[in-house]
C-alpha cells in the first residue's frame, strides 16, 4: 500500500493575512492567488515503478510539480519515492481523475487526499470521564507527577501520599489541563517494575485525589494493562502508554472497554534496550509509519479512533540528534490526523542545543523546547514545571492567534 505523508505546507495563515489587503483593495484575481498559496508538498512511498510513473505523469498533467527521489534508506535504493507539490484544488482534481484509472490508482489518490485532509485537521474535542478536552485552540499543559524512586529528573521527590497529593494540587493551581501520574520509570536503561509495586505507588494517590474532587482529568502513565484497569476504576480518565500498546497484549482491550482516551507513543523495544534500537534511515517517515501501524492495531482491537492521541517519543529509542530532528519535523505528524502530545521536559537531548547543566535543561532548555513544540503543532506538552510552561504558552499561543 502507498505510504503518503505531508512534508510541508506554506504558512497559509500568514499568507492569508497579507492577501487580505488585496481583498480590501477589490482585486478580482484574489481567489486564484489564495488557491496557489494553499500549497502542500507530499511524499509518496512504496510504489511499484509503473505506479510511480503514473503518479508523476498525472500530477504534471494537472499542473503540479512532481519528481522522483531516491529514499534515504539504502536498503530501498531502487524503490524511488515520489515528491509532489500542488495546491489543495489541484490535489482534489487529481483524486477525482484517478477514479478512471483503476483500483490501484484510486487507492493511491485516496491516500493522498486523506493525508491532506488529516493534515489540515487542527481542532479536536476529546471526551474524558472527567470532562472534555478542547485541543488545538490553545496548547494544553500536562503536568508530570512521578511516584518513582528512580525517574531521571524527580525520582523519590514525591515518595509519600501526602507529598504526591500536595504536588498534584499545585499542578492544578499552576494551570495544567491534565495530570499525568506514573509509578514506573521508563528512562533509558531502567529496570522493569512489577505491576503490583506500580499499583502500590499510584492507587492510594489516585483514591485520595478522587475523594478530594480533584479538578483535572488524570492520565495514568503505564505499560501494564492491570495497572491501567485499576487506575481507571479509581478515577483516572486517560491512559498514557509509552509502548504504544505493544508491551501488554491486554492493554488495548482495557482501553476499548473503558472507552477512554489513550496516548500512543512511538518507541522501540523496552527502556532496557531501546537505546540500541535508535537506528533510522528516514526518521520522520519511520515514526509516522510505525505510529500508523499502532493506530491500526488499536482500531482493530476496538479502540475508538476519536479517542487516540499520538506522541513521537522524544528520547525513546532516539539519541539527542534524532530527538532534535523529531522537533524539527513535528508538523509532519499532522498527517496522522490525530492530536499530538510531546514530552520535551528536562530531557538529555537539550544538551545538544546548549542546555548543559541540569538547571539549564529544567529552565531555559525546556522553555525553548515547549515553545518550539507548540509552534510546530503540538496540542499538549508534557512537563514537570507547569507554571513555567503555562506562562510561555500564553505568549506562543497569543502570537499564533494574531498571525
What does this 3D model show about the protein?
Helix 7 (195-211) runs parallel beside helix 8. The protein folds into two domains: 3-120, Gyrase A, domain 2, CATH 3.30.1360; 124-402, TIM Barrel (Alpha-Beta Barrel). The strands form three sheets. The protein has an eight-stranded parallel β-sheet. The chain has a four-stranded antiparallel β-sheet with strand order 1-2-4-3. It has helices at 12-24, 30-37, 49-61, 88-97, 103-120, 161-173, 195-211, 225-234, 251-258, 283-300, 320-328, 358-376, 386-402; strands at 3-9, 39-45, 65-69, 81-87, 124-126, 133-135, 140-146, 178-182, 218-221, 238-241, 262-265, 308-311, 341-342, 380-383. It is an alpha/beta fold and 403 residues long.
Summarize the structure.
43% of the residues lie in helices and 16% in strands. The protein is of the alpha/beta class.
Proper CATH architecture of the largest domain: Alpha-Beta Barrel
**What is the 3D shape?**
globular
CATH class of the largest domain: Alpha Beta
SS field, number of helical segments: 13
Mean pLDDT: 89
Topology:
Layout: E1 3-9, H1 12-24, H2 30-37, E2 39-45, H3 49-61, E3 65-69, E4 81-87, H4 88-97, H5 103-120, E5 124-126, E6 133-135, E7 140-146, H6 161-173, E8 178-182, H7 195-211, E9 218-221, H8 225-234, E10 238-241, H9 251-258, E11 262-265, H10 283-300, E12 308-311, H11 320-328, E13 341-342, H12 358-376, E14 380-383, H13 386-402
Parallel strand pairs: 7-8, 7-14, 8-9, 9-10, 10-11, 11-12, 13-14
Antiparallel strand pairs: 1-2, 2-4, 3-4, 5-6
Helix pairs in contact: 1-2, 4-5, 6-7, 7-8, 8-9, 12-13
